[in-house]
Structures are given as C-alpha cells and as structure tokens.
Amino acid sequence: MGSNIKLIQAGKVRAVSIFSPKRFELLPDVPTLQESGYDFAIRSGLGICSPVGLDPAKQQKLEKVFLEASHDQSFIDLVNTMALPFDRKSGAGFKNDAAVEYEELGRLLDDMGMKKTK
Fold first, then answer.
1. Is the residue at 116 inside a domain?
2. Of 3, 21, 107, 117, which one is least surrounded by beta carbons within 10 A?
3. Whole-prediction pTM value?
C-alpha cells in the first residue's frame, strides 16, 4: 500500500482488492483477491534472513528476539506509518510462504505463456 493508503483513506482513489491472503487492518473494508473470487494471493515479501550455515542455536535465538521485537508498539507504529501489511511468521512459516508463492507465481507465469525457457 505504502503512499497510496492516504489517497485511499481520503476517498481520492478506490482500492478494489488486497493481494494478501487476509485483509489489511488499515483498510478493513477492502476484500482480498480470494474473497473477490480469484484463487491468488501474494504473501509478505518482507523478512529477515540469516546466512546459510548459521548455527541453529543462534538462528533460534535471533528468531525469538525478532519475533518478540515485532510486538513492540514502536515497531507496530512504524509498520503502520509505512502502511505495510504485517504478518508475523517464524522462520519455518516464512520459508513455507516463500515456497508456496514461488509455486503459485510459477504457475501464473506459465499460464501467461511466460515460462522460462533456459
């Protein structure tokens, strides 16, 4: 949504649908694509990643700290100020969403005749 949210909230433009799997808290009256009858969604592309090979104990600690920090009101206020849909995920949940989206977007590109040839 970003900068468009102010235009939507002011009634200068109309949001027809949200691409995320669930409604956006700042625009509760705008349906998702799935609610509008389209079997498609784009999950949040924002995440925090760690280097390959990071010690699993360190990765778990970082994940715990970041998930805890995401509940801090100043973080929530920042996300809302930037008008970003926000969905907390564990590392495994984020990885799963990325895999599902990769498959869905691949099928969409294939259906559009844009299948990768090399």
1. no
2. 117
3. 0.66
**What are the respective helix, strand and coil percentages of the chain, to the nearest 5?**
40, 0, 55
User: In this predicted model, what pLDDT tens digit does every residue of 64-92 receive, in sequence order?
Assistant: 999 999 999 999 888 888 877 778 888 88
Query: DSSP characters for 22-56?
Result: S--TTSTTSPBTTTTT--------------TT--H
Give me the domain span that covers residue 41: 4-111
User: How far is it, in rounded angstroms, from Cα 23 to Cα 85?
Assistant: 9
Structure confidence by residue, pLDDT tens digits, 15-24: 999 888 888 8
The DSSP bridge partners found for residue 18 are 32
Asked if residue 33 is part of any domain, the answer here is yes
